[in-house]
Amino acid sequence: MLGICRGRRKFLAASLTVLFVPAIMWIYLFAGSFEDGKPVSLSPLESQPHSPRYTASSQRERESLEVRMREVEEENRVLRKQLSLAQSRGPAHHHGNHSKTYSMEEGTGDSESLRAGIVAGNSSECGQQPAVEKCETIHVAIVCAGYNASRDVVTLVKSVLFHRRNPLHFHLIADAIAKQILATLFQTWMVPAVRIDFYDADELKSEVSWIPNKHYSGIYGLMKLVLTKTLPSNLERVIVLDTDITFATDIAELWAVFHKFKGQQVLGLVENQSDWYLGNLWKNHRPWPALGRGYNTGVILLLLDKLRKMKWEQMWRLTAERELMSMLSTSLADQDIFNAVIKQNPFLVYQLPCFWNVQLSDHTRSEQCYRDVSDLKVIHWNSPKKLRVKNKHVEFFRNLYLTFLEYDGNLLRRELFGCPSEADVNSENLQKQLSELDEDDLCYEFRRERFTVHRTHLYFLHYEYEPASDNTDVTLVAQLSMDRLQMLEAICKHWEGPISLALYLSDAEAQQFLRYAQGSEVLMSRHNVGYHIVYKEGQFYPVNLLRNVAMKHISTPYMFLSDIDFLPMYGLYEYLRKSVIQLDLANTKKALIVPAFETLRYRLSFPKSKAELLSMLDMGTLFTFRYHVWTKGHAPTNFAKWRTATTPYRVEWEADFEPYVVVRKDCPEYDRRFVGFGWNKVAHIMELDAQEYEFTVLPNAYMIHMPHAPSFDITKFRSNKQYRICLKTLKEEFQQDMSRHYGFAALKYLTAENNS
């Protein structure tokens, strides 16, 4: 009933429009030139109504009104046709619309409608029009390069996913860095009804490298110009977004605006909300040519098929070549060239209401484009200052941005009901594996964790690594959670080589880590540390998954498998590089053992030599690691022999042995079935032995464990009997798997376990 009432209101409003708009327009056209029997100017800029300029101006205004009148009549003709169809369909037509969504904004693409949109806001029911089919795919293109832009893209995508009701297809023009980061992120995110395609930005550099650009976005800031060539030829339309965009509404509403394009309109843009293109910001300010204030290209609607037919490539290149002869370079990257083309061809643009791109730039006038913050649809942080920009509503904008920045991305893995998803092999395999588990099994949660896919953001901070010329470089590998963050600076001071860290954090904690790192001079001075965020999910700490992530993304031929609680001796990095050569690690299967010690003191004068360490051992300041609680874990290292050793010596594997080792990067991964506390390193060392690795103790190397509060997982192990039962079950299953995989040689592990 409600749908029928709304339909009648729409029909009545449309009928009144058909009847009265032509009459009002003709009355205005006829009477607009007279006041008290005398002609008056239609332009507020004319102060001399009887001057020669007046006649020409008045004539132009009259012609403009006549053109507009013809457009209105054409719109009314189409509207009458739609109304007649609606009447012929009858009431059933209303019920047929439930499969569609509706655009809530009203706009015609001219400045008058823009002002109307500001006054009316974005909630006029009468402005609703059939817009986007329920399961229609919305295409979005984003240019992304580097580590920082990859983080920004995630926040943008979160804001889009939060509001969306349609399948999405993201077209990412990315450099090698962004592709590696975002491909892994989306693969592990596993959001239904989202497809990702990548296009190599480095291959496009030659297309735009001839254009000098002063903008901080560099060469990548020009790549939106070549999207007609880059994107698939069968793609007809696309929404193009900057990475510093935040959505406050369903992107389908913006997609629906394509239906309003008319004639030769092929670009949907919002007017620039600063005086940049007016050229009055400072003395001798000389911007590129633009139509009025120009247009901002942070949000673009592109009709690709029509642009290709118009020979867009030739159009923008000729314009850029001509303007560069006098301008010499662009100041605002692609935006300058888009505006120069529009200046020459204004018919190309459909002007979007300003709430589709509220620009928080320097010198912004964005406050004039909305009546209330609830009117906003898209926020654009297009100032280098980003969140520190000045605006009377900046707190609202900042809070909206921070909401998505820290929003749990796992909650966005929701299905679009009624829309069939494309077959995903990884997702199907995961569901099959989970379905084979017995949910009544008391260890079900342990077993399930092995198959959990954790969203992973590689290289969360800037990373640089220069390979060593002698091919002996070693990366320190470790994992941590938020409660071990304080160890990072100390490790960086002790180890000058490359480091690969996997951090188990929530979305909010990831931002806390980012602020912590950016505020640390020690961490910011190190560019050879790879920080890989594995987002929290489930009730266990996935320690071996974290280790595998850190191991997989090293850039060196060798790695030192450590833990975050240990500080390596000063100079260990260089010592290990020499040992790699001395022991021919490149051509032999060796695991070099770094002896582990511990202190119970939070303040420790770190030993600078082996002799000093031995003295501290004798004084009781240091102990061999876990000597008091888990002797078996490191006893095979043979600390008594190490005290006097001057050359490397070989030791044999024993049950529960879990030393810290240096190995080649091609060593086996850690077994994911072990989560939380217990047997996670033991199982890995056992597999190294099964693969016939030779364990060699380094005589002049050491590492010291620093004290800390017990972890949550070790507390569960100690207090929860079922936890210990499940761990024992997993150990037995691992040993059985070893026997099946390695045959007769693996029987010793069962024997050793029974004898221990």
TrEMBL record:
Topology of the protein relative to the lipid bilayer: Single-pass type II membrane protein
UniProt-listed InterPro entries: Glyco_trans_8, Nucleotide-diphossugar_trans, Xyl/GlcA_transferase
Keyword Transferase: yes
Gene3D superfamilies named in the record: Spore Coat Polysaccharide Biosynthesis Protein SpsA, Chain A
Region feature (Disordered): 42-64, 85-109
Any one biological process term the GO annotation gives: protein O-linked glycosylation via mannose
UniProt keyword terms in alphabetical order: Glycoprotein, Glycosyltransferase, Golgi apparatus, Membrane, Multifunctional enzyme, Signal-anchor, Transferase, Transmembrane, Transmembrane helix
Origin superkingdom: Eukaryota
Family assignment from sequence similarity: In the C-terminal section; belongs to the glycosyltransferase 49 family. In the N-terminal section; belongs to the glycosyltransferase 8 family.
Protein name (database record): LARG1 glucuronyltransferase
Organism for this UniProt entry: Malurus elegans
